[in-house]
Amino acid sequence: MGAYILRRLLLVIPTLLGIMIVNFTLTQFVPGGPIEQIIANMEGQGDVFESISGGGSEAAQSSGGGGGGASDRYLGARGLPPEFIEELEREFGFDKPPLQRFLDMMWSYLQFDFGESYFRSISVVDLILEKMPVSISLGLWSTLIAYLISIPLGIRKAVKDGTSFDTWTSSAIIVGYAIPGFLFAILLLVLFAGGSYWKIFPLRGLTSDNWEQLSLIGKIADYFWHITLPVVASLISSFATLTLLTKNSFLDEIKKQYVITARAKGLDERRVLYGHVFRNAMLIVIAGFPGVFIAVFFSGSIIIETIFSLDGLGRLGFEAAVARDYPVIFGTLFVFGLMSLVVGIVSDLMYVFVDPRIDFEKREG
């Protein structure tokens, strides 16, 4: 097992490097980089350069002739002093060749130095740590509730396989899986957040404005009051996979010889299901918990956090992409990519922990 883990860890390096190369290369061809963003903002905000360093501000205040030179490389930069554009390039590091910028970035990332946001004057690490609790809270509750509902439902469907209960629940699950998450989130807002019908839940945020004045019980109630709709919107599509996975796992085990033998000995159905079948059937479901959590954590966070105005990592990534805040984009991409790769290894270890009979080294051989 040690050799298998070592091989998986070594594969993390080229995989993560490939992810970063592809995304870094794509950004070189996407218009509207940070310099273009500043130039566009400059048209309506004369003090936009207060957010960058003193050198950039001095460049913004300098006077000079019109276009040509560096200003021709950026959309909307005609008429700006070339010295000002060159100063901006130095501020953002764009005066270096792309290869050198990528190598410098990766060397810093290997030391877990993700730099500072272009526009927020705060380190990327501090931003991630500030936003992460919201996303973890949303992903964790969505995953736990999905498991608590999907496992009993999947077992019931396996026991009632082929009956009307199995048919209509499968239809409902497939319909829920087919509904886009953002559309379901908007539907919840319209129905239950004062859109057109009932105002039962708050429209946005994770806490109320008077959070600090509430008692401990009041804070807990307020938190669950705010997170109900985002969690429901997040977990709607995850029911299908977990429920059908549980059902199929139970069906596979129920057909095995040891179950037939247990029933022949006169054991009641409940003891057969939960005393013998449950442990074996749940191996793949329980061991997959880290992977399911990461899937919910990444896939739904951007849409859900944006719709419900939750200040988490998904919304941070969306705003960074719109503003072309490259340190935040690449820093979060590196962290998320590393997390997902490590969680993949953890998932494999969970399989071995739950069922020591599993040997990945022999399977690879």
TrEMBL record:
Membrane topology: Multi-pass membrane protein
Limits of the ABC transmembrane type-1 domain: 132-351
InterPro entries: MetI-like, MetI-like_sf
GO cellular component terms, semicolon-separated: plasma membrane
Main location, first listed in the record: membrane
A Pfam match: BPD_transp_1
Domain of life: Bacteria
Keywords: Cell inner membrane, Cell membrane, Membrane, Transmembrane, Transmembrane helix, Transport
Residue ranges of the TM segments: 9-26, 134-153, 174-198, 223-246, 281-308, 328-354
Coiled coil start-end: none
GO biological process: microcin transport; transmembrane transport
Subcellular localization: Cell inner membrane; Cell membrane
PROSITE patterns documented for this protein: ABC_TM1
NCBIfam families: PRK15133.1
Protein family membership: Belongs to the binding-protein-dependent transport system permease family.
Protein name as it appears in the record: Microcin C ABC transporter permease YejB
Phylogenetic lineage: Bacteria, Pseudomonadati, Pseudomonadota, Alphaproteobacteria, Rhodobacterales
